[in-house]
Amino acid sequence: MDFVQYIFRIKRTNKRIISVFIDALFLSFSFGMSLFILGDDISLLANPQHWMLLGVVLPLSILAFVKLGLYRAVLRYMGFQVLAAIVVGVFFSTGILVLLSYVIDSQLPRAVPVVYAAFSLVLVGGSRELLRSMVGTGIKKVGEPVIIYGAGVSGRQTAMALAQSREYHVVAFVDDDSSLHGSAIQGLYVHSPASLSMLLKQKGATKVLLALPSASRARRQAILHSLEPLPVKVLTLPAMADLVSGNKLFSDIKEVEIEDLLGRDAVSPNPELMQANITGKIVMVTGAGGSIGSELCRQILRLFPKKLVLFELSEYGLYAIERELILMKKELEIEVDIYPMLGSVQRQNRVQAVMDAFKVQTVYHAAAYKHVPLVEYNVVEGVRNNIFGTLFTAQAAIATGVETFVLISTDKAVRPTNTMGTTKRMAELVLQALTRTNTTTRFCMVRFGNVLGSSGSVVPLFRNQIANGGPVTVTHPEITRFFMTIPEASQLVIQAGAMGKGGDVFVLDMGKSVKIIDLARKMIRLSGLDIKDENNPDGDIEIQFSGLRPGEKLYEELLIGDNVEGTSHERIMTAREISLTWEKLKPILDKLDVACHDFDHQTIRDLLLAAPTGFNPTDDICDLVWRNKQKNEKPSLVSKVVSINGTTGS
User: Fold this and answer.
1) pLDDT for 341-351, tens place per residue?
2) 549 and 475 in contact (C-beta within 8 Å)?
3) Over 80: is that where the pLDDT of 80 sits?
């Protein structure tokens, strides 16, 4: 409606002036009608004393409305307070009318105040309700039609927020609450979820907005499962925490979060465990600019450390996390010294100098190369960074008296089939061996699976492929993975670190493993698209299988053996696994160091196979330098053979 849109565009001050003027007209009309209805002739209307009475009552009534906050209320969100202000204001106006007519003896009929009050309530209150209803019945019909799933407070406020946009317009509500079915909210009918398929056809809606920010993930997963077969794109509101904090608005709708598909609710962190190694202490995070490292920094900052040292090799990564944390400090109004330090964990003297200068007490070691194929292609750097980087950082921690050292490990360290997982298992062995050297530094390791939204994660890859029209690439139809959100993983890492006694291997409960092809199918369908396959050749997005990448496993594990115990935290377990003494491990590391220096990849592989890591490679050596070197040597060997044969025959 153009008229309503025009009203919305009027400035707030002008709206208030117009409201005051209209209310004055309504009160005057109410008074005049009461005189007209109750008078036998026009004598009551013609009596100037009565209108002089109104001249006093009117400004006092408007003043009462102002004091009651009637003109501060936003019409679109008119609630009980506004109605109460109207009722109280009208009764105040009526009371003033009665009192003044008695004082000046205006001979006003006794029934006039009653009729005046009734007309005033209908006109002042009814006009506002009518206008609000006009707003709710569809201020505009431009944009894509959308159905809101959830007719609660969030759904209603979302509908009002979307009414101001040109991108969507709401055509109906859907809600599980049967008591709401058939009712109208803001001019929109509430329907049962069972009628959603019919509604989509009738209303021409192409999208469903899930307006249930407070619902549990399990409940959201169940709803998404029911929506999956429908030819509709599913959008969702931000989390309630973001809405309450003001970081997001009800109009900030987005695609379905992958954690909603997994359906597992995070467990509230234990405050004592969260604070134990951080609050009031000097904390250092290596790999601070990475996916896990940066989230650790965010969580740590909220726990009020004395100092936070960010150690990062990437200049841009360090710059980005430092700026973000500085903004967080201002928002949280906390005083924490933040120190951005460039450096590599492969340089022990640099790491040790930083730890010594800031007197670091707690270290979270997240610096690592984690992408399986990339480490397969760059074996020496993977070994140097993941094994020796951990060794040098741990030795620096021992030398500077660090109290607690927590290694971020991976489920790929369990019976590894790739170099990355093997190097992480070797890093665990390093810390276990150092623990047995009677050091005062308490070492522990936390092992978990894939984190959602991390760099290289399959979820953003699938989203991009779907947005580009496909195909969606899955390595293997049977491949499965464990998933966890980055904030939950980081909180559990902090809590596990506080429980460590020395040499502990903690394993996070990742829930059920997820079949990647099922994940891909859900993401396609919830994007409102069809899967293109043999049964549906006219579908939108095709799923293609690209084959397992070098070193990739079909199934990931979190435990090497069955020797696992629970802890005080329901999502954290501790594993008793094989370890070596420092005397037995050091010769292996020395030989590995020499082999890396010589780029002797065959020896590197032999040493990793000989170590108690459970390494069982599924591919030959994939290092790109080694392979190209092999290719270059073969032609030269052939030319030598030809040269010798030629000489012999001459």
Assistant:
1) 999 999 999 99
2) yes
3) no
Query: Mean pLDDT in the chain?
Result: 80
Q: Phi/psi of residue 233, each to 5°?
A: -85, 135
Cα separation of 555 and 343, whole Å? 35
Query: 132 near 75, Cβ under 8 Å?
Result: yes
**Residue 101, pLDDT above cutoff 50:** yes
Closest CA to 569 of 486, 492, 501: 492
Q: How far apart are the C-alpha atoms of 627 and 568, rounded to whole Å? A: 49
144-262 folds as Rossmann fold (3.40.50)
CA 601, CA 623: separation in Å to the nearest integer?
8
DSSP 196: H
Residue 345 to residue 394: CA distance in whole angstroms: 10
Task: Please give the single-letter amino acid code of residue 462.
Answer: F
Pairing relationship of beta strands 541-545 and 531-532 according to DSSP bridges: parallel
Backbone angles phi, psi at 529, to 5 degrees: -120, 160
Alpha carbons 545 and 548: distance in angstroms, whole number: 9
What is the pairing mode between strands 184-185 and 188-191?
antiparallel
Contact 282, 307 (CB under 8 A): yes
Residue boundaries of the structural domains of the chain: 2-136, 144-262, 271-452+484-510+557-610
Q: What is the pLDDT of residues 204-216, one digit of tens each?
A: 888 888 887 777 7
501 classed as catalytic = no
CATH fold group of domain 271-452+484-510+557-610: Rossmann fold (3.40.50)
Per-residue confidence (pLDDT) for residue 649, from 0 to 100: 38
Q: Same fold for the domain at 144-262 and the one at 271-452+484-510+557-610? A: yes
The enclosing H or E element of 274 equals helix 271-276
pLDDT tens profile 466-511: 878 878 898 888 887 767 777 878 888 898 888 888 888 888 776 6
Tokens of 280: 């009031």
Token output for 181: 């079915």
95: pLDDT strictly greater than 80: yes
The SS3 assignment for 285 reads strand
> 105 vs 108, 237, 326, 428, CA distance in Å?
8, 62, 71, 97
Residue 180 CA to residue 140 CA, distance in Å, equals 25
Query: How many whole angstroms separate alpha carbon 97 and alpha carbon 593?
Result: 97
The letter for the amino acid at 600 is D
Q: Please tell me the predicted confidence (pLDDT) of residue 376.
A: 92
Catalytic residue among 370, 412, 522, 553: 412
